[in-house]
Amino acid sequence: MSTILVTGAAGFIGFHVAMRLSARGERVLGVDDFNDYYEQELKIARAGRLSRDAHVDIRRVDVANPSAIRDLMAVEDVDRVIHLAAQAGVRYSLDHPFAYERSNMAGHLSVLEACRHTPKLNHLVYASSSSVYGDRPSSGQAFKETDPVDHPISLYAASKRAGELMSDTYSHLFNIPQTGLRFFTVYGPWGRPDMAYFSFTRKALRGEPVAIFGEGRLQRDFTYIDDIVDGIVGVLDRPPLNGGHRILNIGNNQPRSLSDFVSIIEAACGRPLKKSILQMQPGDVSCTWADVSAINGLTGYTPKTSLEVGISEFVSWFRSRYTDDGEVRAN
Ligand SMILES: NC(=O)c1ccc[n+]([C@@H]2O[C@H](COP(=O)([O-])OP(=O)(O)OC[C@H]3O[C@@H](n4cnc5c(N)ncnc54)[C@H](O)[C@@H]3O)[C@@H](O)[C@H]2O)c1
């Protein structure tokens, strides 16, 4: 049976995508290295749900190991790949640069090589990031795929741009049908503990102070996970013709300020946050804002979830998994 390989399947987005594809009757094979960048327990819990509730076969594999990925794809009859495994995070890249070299650059190349040697490959969809646009404080315009991306301001962003360039070369040389998706701040249930919505919720419930960087004026195009999954699956089903490569934004087209975001978290938690206001951090960009007309034209993608609804869904999930002290609930 033809199989979809999802890399990073124990991660936040990979978990939701694998769940959705399995629910529509696809055979899904997940891989992840279960590293300890954030709490491994959460990755293990997502993987447990995937294998128990969705019968997704999930294996511990490092995508940066080329022979492991290539052998797996050959043996398991893989014809579509959703490559999400990566070292995420802008701030972490200041102190752990080689994690990005390994997972994002060597890992991306290893997936491309495996696809090159899979003649029946129908489509490789891979994760890029809005961070490739760099810092554009005063543009007042949504980011378009045709905008310049020559000045990434973090190694994370540079590693994602490197992935896009490698993909372009591989499509040119070997006719691999590919779509790169530039994600814009994805959030929701089963999300990432290193992201602000997660840590702010944890701190609001514990009554601990939070650091608000950029004096609350930073803006992000927060995108709810269910909308993102709609977009990924819609794109997967529409491979580019003739082994081409395209890059699409996938965001919400509605940037919100960090101050708004904090008020929404306070309302959803029913607790005020103790805030300390700080300067922007190196590598942070002032604003992200996706023009989504290209993905909308291709798939009809239209994000539907407001930040108020999405954060409230997240906080409900958070409280079902953790106590207000932040401990994982026994179940
Ligand atoms: N969540 C966002 O807001 C966002 C924004 C822009 C881009 N992205 C990109 O989307 C993708 C998924 O992000 P996410 O939010 O689900 O992050 P995540 O960290 O939850 O998921 C990534 C998964 O990849 C795994 N992984 C890392 N290195 C690996 C390796 N060498 N081999 C195998 N597995 C490895 C991790 O263990 C993790 O489970 C990433 O490529 C990320 O860069 C996410």
From TrEMBL:
TM spans (from-to): none
Lineage: superkingdom: Bacteria
InterPro entries in alphabetical order: Epimerase_deHydtase, NAD(P)-bd_dom_sf
Keywords: NAD
Any one Pfam family match given in the protein's UniProt record, by short name: Epimerase
NAD-dependent epimerase/dehydratase domain span: 4-251
Entry protein name: UDP-N-acetylglucosamine 4-epimerase
Source organism per UniProt: Methylobacterium oxalidis
Lineage: Bacteria, Pseudomonadati, Pseudomonadota, Alphaproteobacteria, Hyphomicrobiales
